[in-house]
Design goal:
The complex is a heterotrimer of chains A (298), B (248) and C (376). Chain A is an all-alpha fold and 298 residues long. Chain A contains eleven helices and two strands. In chain A, strands 1-2 form a two-stranded antiparallel sheet. The chains are: A mainly alpha (298), B alpha/beta (248), C mainly alpha (376).
Chain lengths: 298, 248, 376
């Protein structure tokens, strides 16, 4: 029982991280109708910045704020200068640019900080003894911290979309950019802000996940997370923040339980399992479980 | 055309002046120099066959298409402005087809229409006002716009455009695809908005007879140029026009 | 083309002739041009073969990549089916050859048809989702395949050697006796095999893209609904194209296995390989015949020239930046731009519908959305 609980906790923690990253994808999708394949690598880059700041004596919380700030700028600048000019041309062009960014940001992190694995400090107490005992299982404080941040973020994103003018305008631009412009919405600014916000959310995901990740901070840290997050976002419906969160948690828990209990898949095929979920959802229910918008299909 | 063009200047103070408007899509030129004028509080209709450039004119005026030529509104040039800047100058377009946000609620649609306004109380008042002018919007205020009927969506699109408190409302084929009874109701409201609120109207319409019923003046567009203009009565009285555009 | 009616392009004196020079397909000049082309290609190949062994190896990898990118070109370039999963086809081809040679003692060349067939089947299966989803979403599916491949290889450790990799002994890769080449000359043998394979692939693609099927592919890319309305059977065509595309890239994978002799799932068959192939395709020129060859040169030589700078990261940044720059400045790729320049000088009239590659691919790049504006 306690092993089951511990696996469940693990799953929920990983799932919470996938949920944040999925949230970033959803924010971009809702405001611009595109999947940003480079989201993970942009987050990786800003996480390196947070880590690098701690190595020169800056406290981690300040480093996190700086990373979020850089994430915002990167997102906004990338949207304005690289995505917007090609987005109208074709999906293909958008994707190629995203792949270029993916490769460039990953390599740039390697170039600046080499490819050795870095131990990443945690925002929360992360000692071996920092845990609560729940039903005989250990619930680590840092995991709990991640859960709390996720809950706070979801609340913030929900409020943003449903209670603020900015959120309303973002939804309007995502749904019908032309009518939004005709209503007086400054669509360009909205798109930049959407990508910027996703950059903040992604940066937070990066700083939170790396201390928990078995790889710590390395050039390979974020890619699997992006894969799971994409699966989560598609699972919940690309335009639903709630769906992204539920999707993230479901995939995190499934991953933990499958890795623990299903021998055939074991520790070697978890990403493949997540991807099978992506494909099945795309085929069976293209709007995801919580989504409303029809994805592009014939 | 036999119609005199000299009398077609608005009798009131000029609101919008368009001179030599030329625009197109890529290599294809659609407008070859359109000239027209709208006075304050006037209702003007643009008639013309398919492909004459009616929609292109509207889209250019709203800032959705680059163009050459001069467009002045209340003495200021609109050329080169983005759509949102044109809205904030007081010109609002109800685009052809669906001008609504189908996944937002009716209320949210109206609030998006007030995107560049800051006066919270004024916005609330306007929402109430348009909901009383279009009662169906009040009934469905919490429903997603996509669930409304075609006529209701068109009403919403008009109300949404009015939320920016325009002094000139551009309507691109508001009757397209709607049942005759719905269209009549819509035009009644447009006429009322024009009469009671003093909002000038520029309407592109296939249903010429209906359009003439609320218009003060008319322009006739052919192959990207204004070929005739006059008062609504002039047009109704001209046999050629009647045959070609009114069908009786 | 009206020039052709006015005077015979071959007869007129060069000085007074206006550009482009138009050569009638099937005419003497055209034949001469074709023969010249064959001679040039042969000379280049022989020159390559006589280089020092290290260079020959490098050129072999260019040839292999050119095949792999040509495969990708069929799906992504000509048909507009975006794939980020072609590393899986490359890998499946490679591992098919590797496993058959190592575990079953098969002759390397005899494994090629098996690899091609398996990759065709995988491609066909991957193509199935393309029937329902498009654009970015289809890219997600191919991404899934690309990510899954290394994991699957690791899972089936018994056959594939798992994460540790698979080594093909060099004696298994010896050239056949009839060639008169020694075991030490297997690099040269593979060079020629790859060259012939590439030429066959290019010939196949050239003929395919000029056939009805090729027109259907391009029509589907440009406007799927219109293509379907014109009688293109989207289902058959898309799955078929994905199958063929996978098969060609699989062929490259199979040759690659013989070329490197050691396979590891995290080495050459990750998503990074897919990105390399995509970069090559767009740098060279999507939907052009020779684009993949130019792209392969870039993919092989760019990292080579930058590798001594900093452990591959510079080439990673460079790849990313080049990819973005290409999208902005040269959406047709090098071959697209060069092709246009050549067409400005020389044109082959389609009198017999049999001109060399330069005269084709007028619509080399996917159309822009702006051009779809509806003039109402």
């Amino acid at each position: 029982m306690d092993i089951f609980l511990e696996r469940l906790f693990d799953g929920l923690t990983n799932g919470a991280v996938y949920a944040i990253m999925a949230l970033a994808l959803v924010v971009v999708f809702r405001s611009t109708g595109t999947i940003n394949f480079a989201q993970g690598e942009m987050a990786l880059f800003t996480t390196y910045i947070a880590w690098w700041l701690t190595t020169i004596g800056v406290p981690l919380w300040a480093g996190t704020v700086a990373a979020a700030g850089v994430g915002f700028l990167l997102g906004a600048v990338v949207e304005r200068t690289l995505i917007r000019p090609v987005r109208r041309r074709s999906d293909m062009a958008t994707l190629i640019v995203a792949l270029g960014l993916f490769t460039a940001f990953n390599a740039l992190a390697g170039l600046l900080w080499n490819s050795e694995t870095k131990p990443m400090p945690s925002l929360f107490p992360s000692g071996l003894k920092d845990y609560l005992s729940v039903g005989g299982a250990r619930l680590y404080i840092d995991a709990l911290g991640v859960w709390l941040v996720v809950i706070a973020l979801i609340g913030a994103v929900f409020l943003l979309f449903n209670r603020t003018r900015l959120g309303l305008h973002m939804r309007a631009v995502a749904g019908n950019p032309e009518s939004a412009a005709l209503s007086g919405v400054r669509t360009g600014r909205i798109l930049m802000l959407g990508w910027g916000l996703a950059g903040i959310v992604g940066s937070l995901a990066g700083v939170l996940v790396t201390p928990l990740s078995p790889q710590q901070l390395s050039l390979q840290t974020m890619f699997p997370i992006l894969i799971y997050a994409s699966a989560a976002a598609l699972f919940g419906g690309l335009d639903s923040p709630m769906g992204a969160v539920v999707g993230g948690l479901v995939i995190g828990v499934l991953e933990a339980l499958i890795t623990g209990y299903v021998e055939f898949i074991g520790g070697t095929l978890p990403q493949t399992a997540a991807l099978v979920v992506i494909v099945l959802i795309l085929l069976l229910r293209p709007t995801g479980l919580f989504g409303t918008r029809q994805m592009e299909r014939l | 055309m036999t119609l005199p063009t000299a009398e077609t200047r608005p009798t009131v103070e000029t609101l919008l002046t368009v001179e030599g408007l030329a625009a197109g899509y890529g290599q294809a030129r659609v407008l070859h120099g359109v000239d027209l004028e709208i006075g304050k509080g006037e209702a003007v209709v643009v008639l013309g066959a398919n492909g004459a450039g009616k929609t292109t004119t509207m889209r250019a005026l709203a800032g959705l298409l680059p163009y050459t030529g001069r467009v002045g509104f209340e003495g200021q040039a609109l050329g080169g402005l983005r759509p949102d800047a044109i809205v904030s100058r007081g010109v609002s377009l109800v685009p052809q087809g669906r001008g609504t946000f189908s996944h937002l609620t009716v209320l949210e649609n109206l609030h998006v229409g007030a995107a560049m306004r800051r006066d919270k109380d004024g916005i609330r008042e306007d929402v109430e006002r348009w909901c009383s002018v279009f009662p169906v919007l009040a009934e469905r205020s919490r429903q997603a716009a996509g669930t409304l009927s075609g006529g209701e969506q068109q009403m919403l699109a008009v109300a949404r455009a009015l939320m920016s408190r325009p002094r000139l409302l551009l309507c691109d084929e508001p009757s397209l695809g709607l049942a005759p009874r719905v269209v009549a109701g819509l035009f009644e409201v447009l006429a009322r908005v024009n009469r009671e609120e003093g909002v000038a109207l520029l309407i592109v319409e296939q249903n010429a007879e209906l359009a003439l019923s609320i218009a003060h003046r008319v322009y006739l567009l052919e192959v990207g140029r204004v070929v005739a203009s006059g008062t609504a009565d002039d047009f109704r009285g001209d046999e050629t026009i009647r045959r070609a555009y009114l069908g009786y | 083309m009206t020039l052709l009616d006015q005077h015979d392009a071959v007869g007129a004196p060069p000085a007074s002739r206006r550009l482009p020079i138009v050569i009638r397909g099937g005419s003497g000049a055209h034949r001469a041009l074709q023969v010249a082309l064959v001679v040039v290609v042969a000379l280049v190949l022989f020159a390559g073969a006589s280089a020092e062994p290290f260079r020959v190896g490098q050129l072999t990898s260019v040839l292999i990549f050119a095949i792999a990118i040509s495969g990708l070109n069929l799906a992504t370039g000509y048909t507009g089916l975006l794939s980020i999963g072609h590393s899986a086809f490359f890998g499946l081809g490679a591992y098919t050859t590797g496993v058959l040679v190592v575990s079953y003692g098969a002759a390397p060349m005899s494994t090629i048809p098996v690899a091609v067939l398996l990759c065709f089947v995988l491609g066909f299966v991957v193509g199935l989702p393309a029937l329902r989803i498009r654009g970015l979403y289809l890219a997600m599916v191919t991404l899934a395949v690309g990510v899954a491949f290394p994991e699957v290889v690791k899972r089936f450790e018994d056959a594939t050697g798992g994460a540790a990799g698979l080594v093909i002994r060099s004696r298994h890769l010896a050239p056949p006796a009839w060639t008169g080449l020694t075991v030490g000359q297997r690099g040269l043998w593979l060079y020629w095999v790859s060259a012939v394979a590439l030429l066959l692939v290019l010939l196949l693609i050239r003929n395919l893209t000029r056939s009805r099927a090729g027109i259907a592919m391009i029509a589907t890319r440009d406007n799927e609904i219109a293509a379907a309305a014109s009688g293109v059977r989207l289902a058959t065509m898309k799955t078929g194209v994905f199958g063929l595309s996978g098969a060609v890239t699989g062929l490259a994978g199979s040759l690659f296995a013989m070329y490197v002799g050691a396979l590891s799932p995290d080495g050459s068959f990750t998503l990074l390989k897919s990105i390399e192939l995509i970069t090559g395709l767009f740098v060279g020129g999507a939907a052009t015949l020779l684009g993949p060859v130019i792209g392969a040169l870039a993919v092989v030589y760019l990292p080579y020239f930058t590798s001594d700078l900093a452990a591959g990261h510079v080439s990673g940044v460079l790849f990313g930046v080049i990819l973005i720059v290409i999208v902005f400045l040269m959406p047709e790729g090098v071959a697209g731009v060069a092709g246009r320049a050549v067409r400005r000088l020389v044109q082959i009239s389609p009198a017999t519908g049999d001109g060399p590659s330069a005269s084709r691919a007028e619509r080399a790049t996917p159309p822009t959305r702006e051009s779809e504006g509806d003039p109402r």
